[in-house]
Each structure stands twice: as structure tokens, then as C-alpha cells.
Specification:
With about 350 residues, the chain is α+β, with helices and mostly antiparallel strands. The protein is about 45% helix and about 20% strand. The strands form three sheets. Strands 7-3-10-9-8 form a five-stranded antiparallel sheet. Strands 4-5-6 form a three-stranded antiparallel sheet. α6 runs antiparallel to α13 and α7 packs across α9. It is elongated, with a radius of gyration of 26 Å. The chain starts with 5 loop residues before the first helix and ends with a helix.
């Protein structure tokens, strides 16, 4: 992306920021009051025409002002935007609210998503880490019926995951307690679920004859209990799309966007598309690979444990969003979650 002349930079920046604020095409008369240059309306119109020829602006109607294109927003984000730092009290407030979610990982992530969505008044989409990243402190089994078992996976920091699965033979609670004791003593503590399952599968591949009955059953049951489900998508604040002028005034566009949010598979593709990427990712309008989101922008960042990205949190909103304000919120929230999972 070639660097524009200083005058073009100033005018494009003013148009983007005024359009974000007012949601109407920006005309030359408005710009004469907004830019720090002593230029006539005719000169500004000439610059706007040049920016339109370069693909950074478009004119919805011949008598209207200009609106930034996807390329115009991209140039603004990469070269002209000024990030607004979060205040200490703002960060403290978010951290305190996230700390209130102490026991259940999914509830913590849902709560964090809602906090972010409420702060920036856009939808928040979060890709939860696969359960395999949880560092275990304890595994427990509860017999629900003759062949239905609840497994409780307690993380090092107290976060809990649970799931129900069917067992293929009758078992009683005393036997489940012995299995739990064996797994906790031999393979569980301070290992992730993925690490624990690798150990169990390695033991199962050894000569099974050397195991007694309870050990064999413990390994088989542990393997079944630790098989992971797919990553979970959490969505908060999708109704906030309704309040955005560009959607509220166009019913067909609004229906299209809302239906896209209801399809979790589509959202998973949207967020998971950049899982392997490092740092903050900003996808603007038509840059989105999914047709359903060509009218939207996504600001996302991964949260990590050790050296690997285990999840993603993103804000989804209109192309006309306040990038300079939202980016610091997304980055801070991702860092906050990274700290939580590092502790866990």
C-alpha cells in the first residue's frame, strides 16, 4: 500500500473519522471545519476525487459526499489510526469482573465475552480452548445410572469441566472411586488433559497382561473420559448489531447478518481462520473470506498458554467501527485470558 501525500492523508483520516461518528457521506464543506489545513471546498473536492480514483473512497450518489471503501479503512488502520490507551481504572474494572468467574472455564469465558461486548457495544465471538489444554489437578467420576457416567475434570486453578458419557458395561460407584484414585495417583496431577491421555494410551499399548483388572479398566475409562469434543464457540451481544444504523435501516441486510450469527459453524470458520496467526488480526469488510461477513469487520486476538495459541477472542461489527478504541480492548482482554490460562 503506497504512502499518500500528507494532504491526502489528512483528508482521508478526517473522512473516515467523521463517517465513523456520523454514519453519513462526508462532504467538502464538513471537512473545511475538520481538517487543520486552510483549503477551499473546491480544493478538498479535488483531493476527494483523487482518493476516489485510487479506490479509497466512493460516492453513493452524485450529489452526496464520500464514504470510505474497504481499502480506505485498511489504509486508515495501517497508517493513520491513533490507538486510544485504556485507563488504569478501566483495566482494573475488567480484571476484577473476570476474576469473579473462578470455577467453571466456560462460564468464565462467557462472562469475559459479555464484559467485552458491553464495553465496546459490538458483538463478541470467542473460540474456547479445546478441553485438552486444561491442566489437571483431579479427575473424578460419578455414576448417574448403570452405564452413564459423569466425569469431573478439575483444573489446577479450580476451573472445572464436566461431561457425561456412556460406558459399555455395568459399573458401580466404589469401582469408579478406585479408578479415580488410580488415575489421580499415577498420571493426572499437573498435566494437561492431552498429556494425560497420551500417557494413558501409551500404557494401553504396552503388554496388557501385566495389568490387573482395575488398572485395565482405569486406563480404558480414563481414555474414554478424556476424548475431547470440538472447540466451543461463544457469542455475546449479537443483538447489538440491531442498533447499528447501516443494518437497522436495511431489513434484508439485517436478516442476513443475524442469520450468520445463528450459524455457529460459520462463526467457527470466521474466527478459526486466523488461529495460526500471531498477534492481533483485523479483517475489514470485503477482506472477509466468508460471504456472510462481507458487510462486517472482525478484530481478533489469540490468547495463549505457554507457547501455543489455545483460543481466540474477537469483536464483530460494522466496517464503520471505531478501530482505535476497540483494538486496545481486544488486546487487553486476550492478554487477561492468557494470564488466566497460564495460571491454570
Amino acid at each position: 500500500m503506497n504512502k499518500l501525500a500528507e494532504r491526502e492523508d489528512i483528508i482521508l483520516k478526517a473522512i473516515v473519522e467523521e463517517f465513523v461518528r456520523a454514519v453519513v457521506p462526508v462532504g467538502s464543506r464538513t471537512l473545511t471545519k475538520k481538517i487543520p489545513l486552510d483549503l477551499s471546498s473546491a480544493t478538498i473536492r479535488n483531493v476527494m476525487s483523487d482518493l476516489e480514483d485510487m479506490g479509497y473512497l466512493y460516492q453513493p450518489h452524485t450529489s452526496s459526499g464520500r464514504v470510505p471503501t474497504t481499502a480506505g479503512f485498511r489504509y486508515y488502520v495501517e497508517r493513520l489510526m491513533q490507538l486510544k490507551s485504556l485507563k488504569d481504572e478501566e483495566m482494573e474494572s475488567i480484571s476484577t469482573k473476570v476474576d469473579d468467574f473462578k470455577s467453571d472455564m466456560i462460564e468464565m469465558l462467557k462472562g469475559t465475552s459479555k464484559i467485552l461486548s458491553d464495553r465496546i457495544q459490538h458483538a463478541c465471538v470467542l473460540l474456547a480452548p479445546g478441553p485438552g489444554h486444561l491442566v489437571l489437578k483431579h479427575i473424578g467420576f460419578v455414576l448417574l445410572s448403570r452405564r452413564k457416567i459423569l466425569v469431573l475434570l478439575v483444573g489446577k486453578s479450580g476451573l472445572v469441566q464436566n461431561r457425561v458419557f456412556d460406558h459399555d458395561e455395568d459399573i458401580n460407584q466404589d469401582e469408579l472411586d478406585r479408578i479415580s484414585n488410580y488415575l489421580n495417583q499415577e498420571v493426572v496431577e499437573n498435566k494437561t488433559i492431552m498429556e494425560t491421555r497420551k500417557i494413558i494410551m501409551k500404557e494401553l499399548r504396552r503388554e496388557k497382561a501385566r495389568y490387573n483388572r482395575i488398572v485395565k479398566k482405569a486406563l480404558n475409562l480414563g481414555d474414554k473420559a478424556l476424548k475431547m469434543s470440538e472447540a466451543k464457540i461463544i457469542v455475546e451481544g449479537q443483538s447489538k448489531i440491531l442498533s447499528q444504523p447501516e443494518f437497522a435501516e436495511n431489513l434484508d441486510k439485517l436478516k442476513h447478518v443475524i442469520s450468520s450469527f445463528e450459524e455457529k459453524t460459520t462463526l467457527l470458520k470466521l474466527i478459526d481462520n486466523t488461529m495460526s496467526s500471531e498477534g492481533l488480526q483485523i479483517t475489514i469488510g470485503t477482506e472477509n473470506p466468508l460471504d456472510e461477513f462481507k458487510e462486517l469487520s472482525v478484530i481478533s486476538a489469540g490468547y495463549r498458554r505457554s507457547d501455543s495459541t489455545i483460543g481466540k477472542i474477537g469483536v464483530v461489527g460494522p466496517v464503520r467501527m471505531d478501530y482505535g478504541t476497540i483494538i486496545p480492548f481486544v488486546e487487553f482482554t486476550a492478554q487477561l485470558l492468557s494470564g488466566k490460562f497460564e495460571d491454570n
